[in-house]
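Methods — Computational structure assignment.
A single polypeptide chain was analysed. Its primary sequence is given first, followed by the predicted tertiary structure written as structure tokens.
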Amino acid sequence: MNEQNYIKLLEGALAIDATSAYDADALGFLSRAIVQASLPFQKPAGREYIRRNGTFTFGMQAGIDHELPYGSMPRLLLYWMCSQAVLTQDRHLVCGKSLTSFMGQLGLQATGGRWGTITTLKSQLLRLAAASVSCIDKSPKHDSYQDVTPISGRRLWWDPRNPGQDQFWDSTITLNYDFFQEIISYPVPIDLRAVALLKGSPLALDIYSWLTFRMSYLRRGTVIKWEDLALQFGSSNASLKSFKQKFLKQLKKVQEVYPAKVSNETKRGGLLLQPSKTHVLKLPKNQKLHKGTVTRIADKSTHNRIPKPVDKAVN
């Protein structure tokens, strides 16, 4: 990371530390199932993708005439979709009349060309919409299976050649009913300002989401073996040594934004997690949310009824 980017990261971290996600209107959410297993970081060679996390297995199959989604863009789309689902309590999501305004909600600037953000967003959104996801949670005492397509419908009226032009109709995305129920039943609170600071690295985004989720129920120091972390986060064609180097590099960035108590335990062959505060603290019952669309969640007291998660991560 160059000096300019590092300064920007520190300035952003100081702003997050000074103002809560609630007061900054930066409250976001992610599905618990997505947090426990990462999407592909780079373009996959095949049409099937599998990640394992303890008893939990996450599988993704590419849709007809499409390849698998990968990189930061589908993660930003999922952050937006999950956040809107929880905040509005509706699976029919309104994206807006212009592509530029929607990309602004994702923290992106609309740029054209073959490698521009407009082309990338369109490609990754279509890949994500066509993909099917399987979640299996199997242990001696429990066995569950769910097969869903995250997006069941879309109506996109934007003109990529004129991204800033308002269209007559709002573009919309409709979430699969089962996926929507999973999101609103077990939402993981996140700070969207942290997402904006870390969006350049899909691995950093995954580490951030995983840590704030894990810290919500961690009660004692736990060492997670590097081999197990590689199954959850790693690339299938990378060596364990290479994975560790990449992971620790991105972990350092994440800890600048979210100072969770995590350290590399070389002698124990893993990562030591110590109980830490979640990045988005639970709002006191006598305090109300008051900014932007966040007020819609306050009416339902969703922030006070987030179920206590069951530990599915590797110990």
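Note: The first helix runs from residue 3 to 18.
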